[in-house]
């Protein structure tokens, strides 16, 4: 049975030593009173919740799954899920990063992301219920009318009502322009929605009093395609009253028609949702629904990226424990555990490769993911326009990288860590195969990773002529400039400068090719995203190495071993993981011809 301890030391390293988060946040009027103790206290309490309350529900959630009752069209969540949710709500966790205006604690999104990481390590399926509520809440904050905010936000802040996002239909997932759900205007200003949605996470469950569905649908006179999509609030129970005093009224015509039986995240209800003349209320302007929904989708993409991080961390921790305990074979350099019949498998180079790969991706992912969360806070709350724009640009550029790079790595690491268990990883008893199954969905939902790659290369890089990428490149160049002459930093700065140059050249070359043939973008986008992901991770690893080197130098023999180990992982990253970019660059440059020449009927 897997275990988990929150990586508090590394989280604090990232928050305080790497990002100097409190100093950055204190510049924002909203967080002027924030201090290090508060940040540490929140993370430690969140860790306790995840370790003590969530973690024990993970296995049972996987084994029991959710159950659907066709008679009542209701869904029962696995044993312990509701109790964990009640404890979560009672402690006020749902409102952690919500504005105090709506009854939240008004803390930074950065802390929400740190909490997400631990939730996803301990029970990803459960964490999706409150996670989707946060996304729906943010969408209403930005696009809801004042009356909608007053009615829904206080209840969603406490978690009394949960949220969903209802986009996908049987015939359209990636291409939402084809969606068919209809919304007919009514005399009282509401709409009647009719249609069928599929794959709706947390669409029906027994954990909360009401469910606030955010549904994409088409008005009768809507233009074709994505320009004709509007967004509606469709509550499970129509609310009565307003604000914290609101209660639930009549059952609305939206219900769960069945559950998907799936590969992983069994504890999350993935629902077919039937809208049968359901009452809905328009959010924002008609036909601008996709734009409003992007608030939720972008937030969810960051969350999904962090799911990749959470799984990597917990899979790593359990693989390390196993590798220290399991004896098998002798070290190639001669026996190490002479008193035993065999050595612990942690002596074997390939076992170490698997463990260090997971550790290097987890630690870089934490640094990167938390920095992106800080950019979210910067975008929303920085005092001046210039900083807010910087935050917005970095968020836009990095969102597809967080989503795709971190979840691709998460799946690979979960699989590698399962491999450390040999056959004992493949059987269910040790819980490692659950991580692999759970991690797989992260590459699919919220826009598949191929679509994220197209978004990065097409929309985020080529369409703005590389402006956002250059903004990030400027930070990298400044770091290289500052540290390039320090001989101790050479082993980190040289490969960072090299990958920076290569990304620049590759981007220009692919941009030129794309002008002549758009298929070149489709053919290159996936390896391109991975190469840019490595540029980002090289930058964060070099920064972390700099801090660790300084501490080793300053404290000598008395240095906290944490810093020596950080340097070891940094070296591993640069020598064993970054070099895959050589192949990836070749792949990205190899063009579209061999992919596109085969006639469809010949496959
Ligand atoms: C467990 C689970 C939970 C989910 N939760 C939700 C939810 O809460 N709300 C919701 O609305 N949806 C949800 N989804 C739906 C999910 O977001 C979609 O499955 C996903 O976006 C892909 O859509 P699709 O399945 O229709 O695949 P398709 O769009 O049919 O894609 C099939 C394949 O073609 C590729 N492809 C498609 N178009 C292109 C293109 N233009 N260029 C290149 N490649 C392309 C894709 O990458 C993919 O590999 C969930 C799905 C699952 C499985």
Report the uncertain regions: none
Task: Assign a percent range to the helix content.
Answer: 55-70%
How many helices does DSSP assign?
18
Bound molecules: flavin-adenine dinucleotide
Strand content: 5-15%
Q: What is the general shape?
A: globular
Report on this model:
With 603 residues, this protein is of the alpha+beta class. It is built from 18 helices and 11 strands. The chain has helices at residues 8-18, 21-26, 36-64, 81-90, 109-143, 146-158, 289-325, 349-381, 385-420, 423-426, 432-441, 449-462, 467-483, 490-516, 519-555, 561-577, 580-589, 593-596, and strands at 67-69, 74-76, 161-166, 182-185, 191-201, 210-217, 230-235, 237-240, 247-251, 254-259, 270-283. The strands form 3 sheets. Strands 3, 4, 5, 6, 7, 10 and 11 form a 7-stranded mixed beta sheet that branches. The protein starts with 7 loop residues before the first helix and ends in a 7-residue tail after the last helix. Bound molecules: flavin-adenine dinucleotide (FAD). The site of flavin-adenine dinucleotide has 20 residues, from strand 3, strand 5 and helix 12.
């Amino acid at each position: 049975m897997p275990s988990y301890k929150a990586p508090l030391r590394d989280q604090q390293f990232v928050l305080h030593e790497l990002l100097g988060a409190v100093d950055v946040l204190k510049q924002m009027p909203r967080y002027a009173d924030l201090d290090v103790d508060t940040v540490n206290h929140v993370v430690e309490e969140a860790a306790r919740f995840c370790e003590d309350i969530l973690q024990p529900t993970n296995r049972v959630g996987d084994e029991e799954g959710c159950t659907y009752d066709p008679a009542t069209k209701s869904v029962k969540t696995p044993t312990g899920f509701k109790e964990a949710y009640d404890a979560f709500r009672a402690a006020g966790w749902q409102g952690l990063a919500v504005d105090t205006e709506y009854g939240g604690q008004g803390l930074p999104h950065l802390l929400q992301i740190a909490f997400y990481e631990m939730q996803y390590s301990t029970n990803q399926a459960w964490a999706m219920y409150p996670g989707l509520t946060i996304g729906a809440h943010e969408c209403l904050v930005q696009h809801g009318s004042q009356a909608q905010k007053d009615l829904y936000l206080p209840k969603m802040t406490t978690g009394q009502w949960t949220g969903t996002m209802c986009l996908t239909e049987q015939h359209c997932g990636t291409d939402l322009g084809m969606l068919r759900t209809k919304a007919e205007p009514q005399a009282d200003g509401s709409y009647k929605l009719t249609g069928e949605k599929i794959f709706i996470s947390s669409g029906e469950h027994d954990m909360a009093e009401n469910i606030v569905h955010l549904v994409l649908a088409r008005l009768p006179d809507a233009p074709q395609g994505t320009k004709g999509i509007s967004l509606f609030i469709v509550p499970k129970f129509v609310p009565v009253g307003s604000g914290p005093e609101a209660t639930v009224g009549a059952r609305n015509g939206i219900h769960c028609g069945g559950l998907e039986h799936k590969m992983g995240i069994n504890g999350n209800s993935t629902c077919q949702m039937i809208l049968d003349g359901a009452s809905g209320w328009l959010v924002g302007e008609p036909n601008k629904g996709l734009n409003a929904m992007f608030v939720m989708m972008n937030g969810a993409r960051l969350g999904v990226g962090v799911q990749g991080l959470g799984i990597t961390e917990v899979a790593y921790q359990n693989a390390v424990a196993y590798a220290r305990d399991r004896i098998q074979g002798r070290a190639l350099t001669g026996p190490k555990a002479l008193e035993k019949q065999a050595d612990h498998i942690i002596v074997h180079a390939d076992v170490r490769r698997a463990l260090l790969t997971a550790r290097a991706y987890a630690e870089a992912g934490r640094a990167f993911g938390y920095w992106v969360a800080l950019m979210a806070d910067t975008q929303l709350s920085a005092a001046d326009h210039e900083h807010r724009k910087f935050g917005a640009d970095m968020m836009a550029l990095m969102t597809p990288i967080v989503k795709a790079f971190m979840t691709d790595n998460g799946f690979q690491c979960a699989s590698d860590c399962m491999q450390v268990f040999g056959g004992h990883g493949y059987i269910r008893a040790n819980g490692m195969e659950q991580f692999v199954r759970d991690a797989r969905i992260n590459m699919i939902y919220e826009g598949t990773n191929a679509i994220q790659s197209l978004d990065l290369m097409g929309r985020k890089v080529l369409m703005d002529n590389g402006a956002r990428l250059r903004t990030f490149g400027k930070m990298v160049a400044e770091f290289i400039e500052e540290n390039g002459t320090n001989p101790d930093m050479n082993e980190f700065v040289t490969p960072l400068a090299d990958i920076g140059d290569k990304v620049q050249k590759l981007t220009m070359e692919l941009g030129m090719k794309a002008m002549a043939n758009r298929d070149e973008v489709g053919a290159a986008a996936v390896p391109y995203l991975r190469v840019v992901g490595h540029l980002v991770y090289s930058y964060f690893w070099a920064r972390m190495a700099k801090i660790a080197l300084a501490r080793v130098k300053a404290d000598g023999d008395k240095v906290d071993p944490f810093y020596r180990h950080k340097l070891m992982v940094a070296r591993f990253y640069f020598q064993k993981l970054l070099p895959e970019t050589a192949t990836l660059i070749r792949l990205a440059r190899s063009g579209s011809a061999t992919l596109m020449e085969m006639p469809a009927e010949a496959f």
